[in-house]
Amino acid sequence: MLRIHFTGVDLARVRMAGRPDALWETILSFHRLRDRRDARLFGEWRTETRSRLNGETRLLGALIPSRGYFPDFLTPAEGQYGWDVGLDALRGLHPERIRRELALLGTGARVGAAFGMPAGTGGGDTGVPRRLREFMDGGTEHLPRLLAELRGYHRAAVAPYWNHIQAQIEAERAARGRALLDGGADELLASLPPMLRWRAPVLECDYPVDRDVWLRGRGLLLQPSFFCRRTAVTLHDPELPPVLVYPAAAQLASAPTGSESIRPLEEQRQRTLGKLVGHTRSVVLRAIGDGATTSELARRAGVSLASASQHACVMREAGLVTTLRRGNAVLHTVTPLGAALLKGGAVAS
User: Fold this and answer.
1) How confident is the model at residue 336 (pLDDT cuts 50, 70, 90)?
2) DSSP of 20-61, one letter per residue?
3) 302 pLDDT band (50/70/90 cuts)?
4) Which pLDDT belongs to residue 185?
5) Does 264 score more than 50 pLDDT?
6) What is the arithmetic mean of pLDDT over 152-161?
7) How many Cα neighbours within 13 Å face the side chain of 13?
8) In whole angstroms, what is the distance from residue 134 CA to residue 124 CA?
9) Tell me, what's the pLDDT at 184?
10) DSSP class of residue 318?
C-alpha cells in the first residue's frame, strides 16, 4: 500500500500535468512490450513495435527490470515539458546521482524484494550486473549510448502513437478538470481511478510495497499515463518533486477492440475523419495543408473547381476553414478547430 500524506498547503498545490510525459510513457511502454497481458489493447502495438526495433536496447533492458525499481533519473521532472527537454535533463545528469541510483538498482535481493521482485532479480547474490557496473564506473561516459537507445526505442514504440496517447490524456484531463471545478481538490482526488482512494488527508494506492510519502507542502503532480497499467507509480527518492503517475481512466473503462486498439494514429485518423465528414471532404480538408487557393485545392484533392469551392464553403460555415481574399484569388487556411479535427483532438507536443 502506498500512502501519500497531504497538508492543507499540499491540497492547494495539487495539479494535473498539462500533457503526457514522453519519458514516462517511453519507460512504461518498455514494460508493456515485455508483458503478454492486455493483448487486445497492446497486442498489435507489440507486433508493430518489435518489427520496427532494429537498434540496441540491451542497456535499457538492464536499467528497466520487468518488475520493480528502475532509476528515477530516467524520468526527470523536465520531461513534462516535452521529449527534447527531458533528454536535455538526462544529458546533464551528475555522475554521483547515476552511481547512487544504479547501485540501488543493483542491490538485487534487498531492493527486488522491497519492490515485489523475485529473489535474485537484478543480481542479488552475484553483485551488480556487468552492464550496470560498466555504467556506474563510467559515470556520464555511457550517457550518449543511453540517449541513443532511448531515441531509437521511442521512435519505434511511442512516437508513431503519440497523437493517440495525447487524445487519451486529454480525455483524462477533461474528466479530472470537471471534478476540480465541481468540488475543488478534494473532489479531484476522490474522482481518480479505483486503485487510488482518497481518505483525507491521505491518498491510498494499491502498491507492491508498504510505503508512506509525505508531501510537506510541496504539492503533488498528477501525471495520467497511457502505458501505466494496474497500479500507480511514483519516484523512489522522497526528496525529488512529488509526482504520481497513474493509468488514464479512459484505458480502464473497457477492453478496446478493432479500431480502438493503439495503432499509428495517422491511418486511424484518416479512416475516422472520413466517416465523420465524408471521404471527399476529409481529403479536401487535409489538402488545404498550410494554405491553398481554390484552384490549388481542386488540383490537390483531385476534384473539380466548383466542388472544391463548395466543400470549402461548407467547412468554412462549420468553422473548420477560414477564407481570405487575395487579389483575384481566395486563400483557404485551416482553423485551430479544423487542425484539431485532423489531429484527432490532440495538441502537438
Assistant:
1) confident
2) --HHHHHHHHHHHHH----HHHHHHHHHHHHHH--S--HHHH
3) confident
4) 94
5) yes
6) 93
7) 14
8) 17
9) 92
10) T
| Beta partners for residue 171, in sequence order | none
- Mean pLDDT check: name the lowest of 96-100, 199-203, 212-216: 96-100
Q: What is the pTM of this model?
A: 0.71
pLDDT category of residue 222 using cuts at 50, 70 and 90: very high
CA angle 171, 230, 268 (to 5 degrees): 40
Q: Per this entry, what is the length of the chain?
A: 349
Which one, of 201, 202, 222, lies nearest residue 211 by Cα? 202
Q: Strand locations in 200-297, DSSP E?
A: 202-205, 211-214, 220-225, 233-234, 243-247, 292-293
Beta-ladder partners of 332: 292, 323
* Cell numbers for 227: 502505458
CA distances from 57 to 29, 49, 347 (A): 13, 13, 29
Do 71 and 132 touch, CB atoms closer than 8 A?
A: no
- Paired residues of 323 in beta bridges: 332
Under 8 Å between Cβ of 234 and 27: no
The answer to whether residues 130 and 102 touch, using CB atoms and an 8 Å cutoff, is no
The cell for 65 is 527490470
Cell numbers describing residue 29:
511502454
Say if CB 225 and CB 31 are below 8 A apart: no
